[in-house]
């Protein structure tokens, strides 16, 4: 994979996960039942672990997959809220 494309993907996914983590932390106590803050911060921790694995040559593909886990989770969460699945 092209190095510039990998950097662009990491910046976009990092901003997406980071902004949603901060928004989730800020809004966690507003609803009927509050979410534990550690669960919200785990999304960012998982993304950082994926980024660290991408920096090693042997684990680049595994790191890319782990980086997309929080992104896919957040997209599914927004889709479920929009379509009223839950």
From TrEMBL:
Statement: the UniProt record of this protein carries the keyword Membrane: yes
Stated name of the protein: Uncharacterized protein
Species: Jeotgalibacillus alimentarius
Keywords carried by this UniProt record: Membrane, Transmembrane, Transmembrane helix
Transmembrane annotation, as ranges: 7-26, 38-57, 64-83
């Amino acid at each position: 994979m092209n190095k510039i494309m990998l950097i662009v993907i990491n910046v976009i996914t990092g901003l997406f996960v980071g902004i949603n983590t901060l928004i989730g932390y800020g809004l966690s106590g507003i609803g009927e039942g509050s979410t534990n803050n550690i669960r919200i911060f785990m999304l960012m921790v998982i993304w950082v672990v994926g980024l660290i694995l991408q920096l090693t040559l042997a684990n680049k593909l595994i790191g890319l997959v782990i980086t997309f886990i929080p992104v896919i989770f957040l997209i599914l969460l927004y889709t479920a809220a929009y379509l009223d699945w839950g």
